[in-house]
Amino acid sequence: MSVQAKIVAEGAKTTNPKVLAFVEEAKALFKPDAVRWCDGSKEEYQELLKLMVDCGTAMWLNPDKRGNSILVRSDPADVARVEDQTYICSVKKEDAGPTNNWADPAEMKATITKLYDGAMQGRTMYVVPYSMGPVGSPIAGIGVMVTDSAYAVANMHIMTRVGDKVWKALGDSEDFVRGMHSVGYPLPTPKTADVPWPCNSTKNISHFPETREIWSFGSGYGGNALLGKKCHALRIASVKARDEGWMAEHMLILKLTNPKGEVKYMAAAFPSACGKTNLAMLNPTIPGWKAETIGDDICWMKFGEDGRLYAINPETGFFGVAPGTSEASNLNAMRALDENCIFTNVGLTEDEDVYWEDMTKHKPAHAIDWMRRPWTPEADRPAAHPNARFTAPASQCPVIAPEWEDPKGVPIDAILFGGRRASVVPLVTEAEDWKQGTFLGSIMASEKTAAAADAKGDIRRDPMAMLPFCGYHMGDYFAHWLKIGEKGGDKLPKIFYVNWFRKSPEGKFLWPGFAENSRVLKWIFERCDGTAEAIDTPIGKVPTEDALDTDGLDVDDSALKELLKVDIDGWKAELPLIREHYATFGDKLPQGLREELSQLEKRLS
Ligand SMILES: Nc1nc2c(ncn2[C@@H]2O[C@H](COP(=O)(O)OP(=O)(O)OP(=O)(O)O)[C@@H](O)[C@H]2O)c(=O)[nH]1
Ligand SMILES: O=C([O-])CC(=O)C(=O)O
Ligand SMILES: [Mn+2]
C-alpha cells in the first residue's frame, strides 16, 4: 500500500443520497485503496503537506523565511492549463460554439471511463466538499470533487472553502457541481513505485455543462486539477449563470475609497498576464485614496433586491503568477507570501527560500531551478518556470477588504475591460451605456509579446477575457450580457475600456502603470459620480487633459496627449478585423452588437 493509501477512510459526512451515489460510482470506477472524506480542518491540511513531503512531491521551505510553506516541482510536461485538450461536451455541438473544443457527451464519457477505470489503484480517493463563495451566501455555489491528488486537495483548501459546513449548507439538495479528477497514475501492485509528480501523457479536461459535471484526467496542475477554479467557477458557472440570470466572470474585484471616505467597487476583466492581480492589490499614488482587494481572478454577480449587481469573490486564495512579482511591483502580494503558501515550479535558494525572475534586486549567486538543476545568474534559462505559481490565502493580503467575505457581496459601480494594446486603444474610455460597453468587451484584444506588438493583426481577440473560460457559445454569451443590460437598466455599473500598455514608436510604455493606475481609477470613480470631465469621441468618452489627476506624475505632455488620443485611422483599420472576429459567431452574434459596430463605423467616417 502506498503512503497515500495509508490514510484510511473515515466514513461519509453527509447523508445526501446524490452525493453518496456519486461517490460510490466514482469508487467503483477508480478502484482506490481507500476513500477519505475531507473535513477542511487545519489538521487535515498539515497532514496533506506532510504526506506530500513524505512522498517526495514537496519539500519544506526554511521555516524562518517561509513559515509552514512547501515547494513543489511538477513534471516538466505538466506545467499549465491544456487548452487543446479542454472540452465543452454540451449535448448540441452548436452550444459549445466556435471558440471551444466540442465532443459528444456520451462518447466523451465512454472515452474517459476507459481512462478512469482503475486509475486510483494503490491510492486514496479524497472526497472534497467545497463552496465557491461564503458558505450559504445566495451568490455562492457548491461543488463536490473526488481526486487522487493530495496536491490538488491542499490547494483546494487554500483556494476554496472546504469542510463539513458545506455538507450542512448543501443538505439534500441536488444543486452541486460534480467533479472527478485523477492524475492517471495508478499503483496497481504494492511494488509499483510512485513518482514525485504523478501524471499521464494523455490529458483530458472535459465539462458537461447541462449536467454540471467536470471530468479531468492526467494533469495535477492548476486550472486542470483545482476544479473549483476555471472548470467550476467559470466554465460550468457561466452556463448556470446564463440559465439563472446572473454573471460568472474572469474579473478582479477592488474597493476604492476617496479622501472623503466614499466607496466604490470595481470589477475588471483582463486576459491572463495583463495585470489583474497587480491592479487588485495596488497602493494608490494619489494622496488620500485607498484601494483594497476583494478578489484577483473570478467574480460572480447577481442582482440584489435594490436592482443593483452584487459581486462576490468565489475564491479564498490567490493562485498567482510568481515571476515578476516583487516588493517593487506588488508589495501586498509579496506580504501575502510570507507564510502558509504552496510554491509550484519556482527556484530554490541555498537557504531554502524561493526565487523567481525579478523577485529581488539582487539575484542569488546559486540556486536550484524548477527542474532541480543547479542554477546561477549566468545560466541561459530562468530559475522559475514562466508559469510558476504561488498559492496564498487571501486573508494574508495586507489590503484585503474587511467585507471580502460578506455573503451579500458588494455592489459594483464600474466594470473595466482591458488588454495589452501597443496602439489604437486609449488609456481609458467610458462606454456611453451598457450596450456599447458590451460591444467594447466583445472586441477586446491583447498582443502577445512586445516584439510582435507592431505587427498588424497580430492580436488575439479575447472577449471579456473569457475566451478559454466560457462554457457555451460566445455569441449566446454576448446575448446574455445584453439581456443583463435590459434587466438592470440605469442601476447597472458603468463600463470602461482601459489600456495600460500603449507604446511610443520606439516601443516604450507611455504609461508608468502599476500603482499609477490609481489615477485612472480616480477618474472612473468620479465619472460614476458625474463629477469628472470627459469629451465625446467616436468610441466613447475619454478624459479631458485636465480631468486626469497628474499631480506629481512623471509623464510628459506629449505622452499624455498620445495616451488619451483617439486614433481615428487606427480604429478605421480595426473595423475589418472586428468584422472578421464577429463573423466567427455567425447567426449567434446578437443584433445589438451588429448595430454597435455599424454605429461606430458611421461615427468614424
Ligand atoms: N506595463 C505594465 N505592466 C503591467 C501592469 N500591471 C501588470 N503588468 C504586467 O503584467 C504581468 C501579469 O500581471 P498579473 O497581475 O499577474 O496578471 P493576471 O491578469 O493576474 O494574470 P493571471 O493570474 O494569469 O490571470 C506582470 O508580469 C506585470 O509585469 C501595468 O500597469 N503596466
Ligand atoms: O487556471 C490556471 O491554471 C491559472 C490561471 O489563473 C489562469 O490561467 O488564468
Ligand atoms: Mn486568471
Automatic annotation (TrEMBL):
Q: Where is the active site?
A: C274
UniProt binding sites for GTP: A273, C274, G275, K276, T277, N278, R389, R420, F514, A515, E516, N517
**UniProt key word Ribonucleoprotein:** no
Q: Which reaction does it catalyse?
A: oxaloacetate + GTP = phosphoenolpyruvate + GDP + CO2
Gene3D superfamilies to which the protein is assigned, alphabetical: 3.90.228.20, Phosphoenolpyruvate Carboxykinase, domain 1, Phosphoenolpyruvate Carboxykinase, domain 2
Where would I find the Phosphoenolpyruvate carboxykinase C-terminal P-loop domain in this sequence?
Answer: 246-603
* One Pfam family this sequence matches: PEPCK_GTP
Q: Which GO terms describe its biological process?
A: cellular response to glucose stimulus; gluconeogenesis; glycerol biosynthetic process from pyruvate; oxaloacetate metabolic process; propionate catabolic process; response to lipid; response to starvation
**One GO cellular component term noted in the UniProt record for this chain:** cytosol
Provide the cofactor note recorded for this chain's UniProt entry.
Answer: Binds 1 Mn(2+) ion per subunit.
Which residues belong to any copy of the Phosphoenolpyruvate carboxykinase GTP-utilising N-terminal domain?
Answer: 22-242
Superkingdom as given in the UniProt entry? Bacteria
Which keywords does this Swiss-Prot/TrEMBL entry list? Answer: Cytoplasm, Decarboxylase, Gluconeogenesis, GTP-binding, Kinase, Lyase, Manganese, Metal-binding, Nucleotide-binding, Pyruvate, Transferase
The record's annotation in CDD domains points to: PEPCK_GTP (cd00819)
Kindly tell me the pathway this chain contributes to.
Carbohydrate biosynthesis; gluconeogenesis
Q: Which GO terms describe its molecular function?
A: GTP binding; kinase activity; manganese ion binding; phosphoenolpyruvate carboxykinase (GTP) activity
Entry binding sites for substrate: R81, Y221, G222, G223, S272, N387, A388, R389
Q: What is its EC number?
A: 4.1.1.32
Catalytic class of the enzyme: lyase
Q: Which cofactor does it need?
A: Mn(2+)
| Similarity comment text for this entry | Belongs to the phosphoenolpyruvate carboxykinase [GTP] family.
The protein's job, in short, is: Catalyzes the conversion of oxaloacetate (OAA) to phosphoenolpyruvate (PEP), the rate-limiting step in the metabolic pathway that produces glucose from lactate and other precursors derived from the citric acid cycle.
What's the protein called, per UniProt?
Phosphoenolpyruvate carboxykinase [GTP]
Tell me which species this is from. Answer: Methyloceanibacter superfactus
Organism ancestry: Bacteria, Pseudomonadati, Pseudomonadota, Alphaproteobacteria, Hyphomicrobiales
